[in-house]
Write a structure and sequence with these properties.
- By secondary structure, the protein is an alpha/beta fold.
- It contains eight helices and ten strands.
- The protein has helices at 42-50, 52-55, 100-106, 115-128, 144-156, 174-191, 202-205, 227-231, and strands at 2-10, 19-26, 31-35, 60-67, 70-71, 84-87, 162-166, 194-198, 211-214, 223-225.
- Helix 3 (100-106) packs parallel to helix 5 and helix 5 (144-156) packs parallel to helix 6.
- The chain starts with a strand and ends with a helix.
- Bound molecules: adenosine-5'-diphosphate (2 copies).
- One adenosine-5'-diphosphate binds at residues 117, 120-121, 124, 156, 159, 191.
- Probably part of an ABC transporter complex. Responsible for energy coupling to the transport system.
- This is ATP-binding cassette domain-containing protein.
Length: 233
């Protein structure tokens, strides 16, 4: 579903590459956890999938990243909305409208869908994420877990094949984190979405993962496998 072919990212030539000649294939329809020490390049790797690298954060990308066959470098992130949805650590940074239902609809704006299709997708996403009762609520009045579910919903309405999340639970208390992780697990199981998520609080998330990718250190090859096998490395 996601393929990395000899991918290197350099922000600053003097500092050396943030990712070096990475080869990796992320399987389809699984919840995949990305782990590794701080600074090893997890956010950079996620950024190459969502198109944030190089289009928004800068950096030079060499090699090729494809998501469902689409090259992320030759498309702007907005043009990838129906392939990959991206959610960050801070849901507040994500929102552009006031209410829950407007936010879900906004994610589809660039797709050119008919109004009735957009309405149906908002309804289906509200139900899927347990947000139906909150549809008219101003986002500012929601809890952290509810906000993060809205952020996920807003990138889901284009029906992406892949969801990329950079530490989606790190700003949440344990109960809200469980709420968000349960939703992600449901997307994988019910819709076959591929979820790729970086997280440093392993004890919180590892039992939700189908696969773990470990970036052991700068320039070292990634290790991918079942959670128990990778965590034993
Ligand atoms: P992680 O997510 O594993 O902590 P990052 O991908 O954030 O790692 O960072 C990898 C390396 O790239 C670090 O040395 C970091 O300082 C550097 N880096 C990340 N983003 C940028 C940027 N936008 N500009 C310059 N350097 C960056
Ligand atoms: P469209 O909006 O293209 O007319 P529908 O809304 O009828 O299509 O949904 C098509 C199918 O996609 C439904 O079976 C629905 O369950 C499923 N679906 C719902 N949400 C998602 C999603 N986020 N990603 C992929 N498929 C989804």
């Amino acid at each position: 579903m996601i393929r990395f072919d000899q991918v290197s990212v350099t922000y600053d030539e003097a500092a050396g590459p943030a990712l070096a000649q990475l080869d990796l294939t992320v399987p389809e329809g699984e919840l995949v956890l990305l782990v590794g020490p701080s600074g090893v390049g997890k956010s950079t790797l996620l950024g190459t999938v969502s198109g944030l690298v190089p289009h928004f954060t800068g950096g030079t990308l060499r090699g090729r990243v494809t998501v469902a066959g689409r090259d992320t470098r030759t498309h702007r992130p907005r043009e990838l909305a129906d392939v990959v949805g991206t959610v960050g650590q801070d849901p507040l940074a994500h929102f552009v409208t006031d209410t829950v239902e407007d936010e879900l609809a906004y994610g589809m704006e660039s797709l050119g869908l008919a109004p009735d299709v957009m309405r149906r997708r908002v309804e289906e996403t509200l139900d899927l994420l347990g947000l139906a009762e909150l549809r008219e609520r101003p986002i500012a009045t929601l809890s952290g877990g509810q906000r993060q579910r809205v952020a996920i919903g807003s990138v889901l309405t284009p029906h992406p094949k892949v969801l990329v999340l950079d530490e989606p639970t790190s700003a949440l208390d344990p109960a809200a984190a469980e709420e968000v992780l349960a939703v992600l697990q449901r997307l994988v199981h019910d819709l076959g979405t591929t979820v790729l998520m970086a997280e440093h609080r392993l004890e919180r998330v590892v039992h939700y993962a189908d696969q773990v990718i470990l970036l052991p250190g700068p320039g070292q090859a990634p290790v991918i496998g079942a959670p128990a096998d990778v965590m034993a490395v």
